[in-house]
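step: validate -> pass
step: tokenize input -> pass
step: predict -> running
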Amino acid sequence: MDLTPYRMFLTRGVGRHHEKLSSFELALRDAGIQCYNLVTVSSILPAGVEIVKKEVGLDAMKPGQIVFCVMARNSTDEPGRQLAASVGVAVPGSKAQYGYLSEHHSFGQNEREAGEYAEDLAAEMLASTLGIDFDPDGSWDEKKEQWKIGGKVFRTRNITQAAVCRKRGGKRVWTTVVTAAVFII
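step: predict -> pass
step: emit ->
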């Protein structure tokens, strides 16, 4: 039985509750993936995988299904603390080459900062696999929105969820952020 994914979608969510586990459940609900048995896997993007819209991916799955994903999550109950979770994606130019996904969890970063960091991390992992020195400041071509490293071109993107933890009704509440690259087999 071949378990190699052929499609993938990205999703994100935030949840708030006085219980930490319930805040995680609410974040999964916000992301639309609460009704699946999620199995987290490491960060390889299968060669040739098609990245589809979330709605297309969800239509291909059924509640209770075992679903593989790369997930980033972060939680806090400290009021005023900013938190973020991000999954970065590095897609090689050749469909025959596998790519990378990265998980990044941070405090004090906004959505843009956390997303860029996750993208850089995924790009660096792909470059090191290809045996190429990586300079994130010198390899990005803003005009083409792509990386060119060692003569190889690839694209990056991210899915990021950031939030600020707040009190609710004067009480501390857990805030959880989650992002995921969800695989369809």
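step: describe -> The first strand starts at residue 7 and ends at 17.
step: cleanup -> pass
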